[in-house]
Amino acid sequence: MRFDGNSLTKCTLAEWRGCMPQIKDAVRLDRFDPGPISYVGFGKDEPPRLIVGIDTEAEFEWGQPFSRTKISVASVSEQYRAQDIFDRYRIIPTYLVDYAVADDDVAVGVLSDFQRSGRCEIGAHLNPWLNPPFEETLDRFHSYPYNLPAGLEAKKLEHLTATIAERFGHNPRVYRAGRYGIGPDTGGILADLGYCVDMSVMPHTVFSEDGGPDFRGLDHRPFRFGPKKCLLEIPASCGYTGWLAIVGGSVFPLLSSRAGMRIHGPGISARFRALERIRLTPEGVSFAELRRLTKSLYRIGCRVFSLTYHSPSLAPGNTPYVRNEEELSGFLWTIEQYCRYFVNEFGGKASTPIEEFHYVFKAR
């Protein structure tokens, strides 16, 4: 193969070896490095805890160019559908709101009603293309916050934090980067703004195709990071199930490579229950899969489970996961079944990101 900066073409083995330094220098390395960290250990006898973090954001057309003018947050008014389920199981979700939501009177009213009655917590979610100041190019690359200049990432987060504080009456302390776009500067920015918890890491997942981070090498374990390790990272719950789960980090990248996809590697391995990578979300994931993932993660020591989804999924037609009323019913059924299973059968209990922060930093 021959490397020309954009593509690889056939060449001899000797030429390939000669190309390697060019490839190493030219390919952007996006493996997320949080800097010095301390993993949080949990005892085997500790009960599993479930936290819910909802990306509460404007509706936009998935897979389409980003826009600053097509802004609607109407789906926030539909959040009661899932909130009622959480209430039944005494689960207090964290709504991670973006600027479009925080700037809308109706959306703020809906979430403030939940908040005043102690039924939810409010955090922050930075979607750069909707969040002032607008100094970056409007494209997919800059939709990941960490691809912004550090100063601009900080200014956008400062503006978002101040807006949430003004609209909801207190500074947010929990954060998730839009599109999971956390980077090397994010921890310092969050610490300066008074945040305690980040929820941006999606373990075993690569978003590098359009400039996103690479989270390979990180798993379910919460860890302390940032200046003086003052922040708690609670990763999204994503892991492997099946009889190859123990080597999933090595095998799944091969199955999901271009060559593996040509032979439908992930689908075949899932069909034979050899290896599946599953996220703890009702979006495109069945209750049976969620249960398998929960059991698998618990066996390897996971005690903090993080259920996530996007708020627009509560209104049909906004996301690929809920396109009509029938799919909405199935979506809500999955949430209900999982909450019931976790609390009533699995022996778990509800928690929040801030509760986990206090537990970690007071216990250690």
Map the helices and strands.
Elements: E1 2-3, E2 8-9, H1 13-26, E3 38-39, E4 49-56, H2 80-88, E5 94-97, H3 99-102, H4 105-116, E6 121-126, H5 150-168, E7 174-177, H6 186-192, E8 197-198, E9 223-225, E10 231-233, E11 238-241, H7 248-255, H8 258-262, H9 265-271, E12 276-279, H10 287-299, E13 304-310, H11 325-345, E14 349-350, H12 353-363
Parallel strand pairs: 4-5, 4-13, 4-14, 5-6, 6-7, 7-8, 8-10
Antiparallel strand pairs: 1-2, 3-9, 9-10, 11-12
Helix pairs in contact: 2-11
Describe this protein with a few key phrases.
364 residues; alpha/beta; TIM Barrel; ten-stranded mixed sheet; two-stranded antiparallel sheet; 12 helices; 14 strands; disordered N terminus
The poorly predicted ranges are 1-29
The CATH class of the domain at 47-237 and 307-330 and 348-363 turns out to be Alpha Beta
Class by SSE composition: alpha/beta
The percent of residues in helical segments reads 25-40%
User: How many strands, which pairing sense, and closed or not: the largest β-sheet?
Assistant: 10 strands, mixed
Q: How far apart are the termini?
A: 53 Å
Task: Briefly characterize the structure.
The protein is an alpha/beta fold and 364 residues long.
Your description of this structure?
The chain has 364 residues and is an alpha/beta fold. It has helices spanning 13-26, 80-88, 99-102, 105-116, 150-168, 186-192, 248-255, 258-262, 265-271, 287-299, 325-345, 353-363; strands spanning 2-3, 8-9, 38-39, 49-56, 94-97, 121-126, 174-177, 197-198, 223-225, 231-233, 238-241, 276-279, 304-310, 349-350. Helix 2 (80-88) links the parallel strand 4 (49-56) and strand 5. Helix 2 runs parallel beside helix 11 (325-345). The chain is globular.
